[in-house]
Amino acid sequence: MIRGRAPALPLALVERLRAARTVAALTGAGVSAESGVPTFRDAQTGLWATFDPTQLATPSAFARNPKFVWDWYAWRRELLAGARPNPGHHALAAIARHVPQFRLITQNVDGLHQAAGSAGIVELHGNIGRVRCSRGCGTVARWADASPDEPPRCATCGAFLRPDVVWFEEMLPPAALAAAEDAVRHCDVLLVIGTAAEVYPAAALPHAARQCGATVVEINPRPTALSDDVHHVLRGPAGVVLPALVAATWPPPK
Ligand code: OAD
Questions:
Q1: What is the rounded (10 degree) CA torsion for 136, 180, 178, 119?
Q2: Which residues form the pocket of ligand 1, taking CB atoms under 6 Å from any ligand atom?
Q3: Tens digits of residue pLDDT in 5-56
Q4: 207 is catalytic
Q5: What domain count does the chain have?
Q6: Which residue segment(s) compose the domain that 52 sits in?
Q7: How far apart are CA 12 and CA 45, in angstroms?
Q8: Whether residues 69 and 180 fall in one domain
Q9: Residues 89, 90, 125, 232: which is the catalytic one?
């Protein structure tokens, strides 16, 4: 059930978006909130309000207790088992059909953008549907194909497999970061959706976009660290605002 009303959409934004040749979007956990997926920093309901990230989402936590960390990610996967893309995910997939070039960059690991039909997604923080060798021998597999051990062992080198997601204290996948930086530096409009804009280097991307001349738009029901540095703030839930923005910018043929 999606609650909330779409805020007023500035005509200047609608016209800028309609004329755009390249559009990019940077999403965070908030775009999946209306699919029932917990965010990280929302008060009371966010994962980091409930769990200590240093005990779960760091290489040292995994080295200290692989099963504990593995089980927590298995629990998060279970949460996702029933999650479906919401109208916000579908609206982003629709934008790709309206503009010559659309690049979707996500911090999310939930795979819901792929499930909504988006393609060419830049996964800055990995994907919880994949596992990889914790020793870095190069093995990558679908979590669903991994053996039921908790955690399973790498078939190549025998080390534990781990979720293919970025942990704190880790670098982002260099190719993904480079693709994201290229996308935001060469877009006419950047939509920043459902992120608290607190985790770097992802949080630096909107500033790079603005420095390169893009119109930067924040879509979020609450203010963030970025709100004062964007051209337009659409204060509302992604599942309501994005479909309204797409309908206003590219109205269906009469
Ligand atoms: P956060 O949980 O930090 O922020 C979620 C944002 O979504 C907040 O600004 C909310 O106001 C907003 N929000 C909530 N409901 C929304 C809705 N229906 N529509 C739109 N926005 C909504 O999540 P992220 O900013 O994505 O890192 O967190 C960034 C990174 O920090 C994550 O990728 C993760 C975490 O530690 C890694 O996994 C490496």
A1: 60
A2: 28-31, 33-34, 39-42, 46, 107, 125, 165-166, 194-196, 198-199, 220-222, 224, 237-239
A3: 778 899 999 999 999 999 999 999 999 999 999 999 988 788 888 889 888 9
A4: no
A5: 2
A6: 46-81+146-165
A7: 35
A8: no
A9: 125
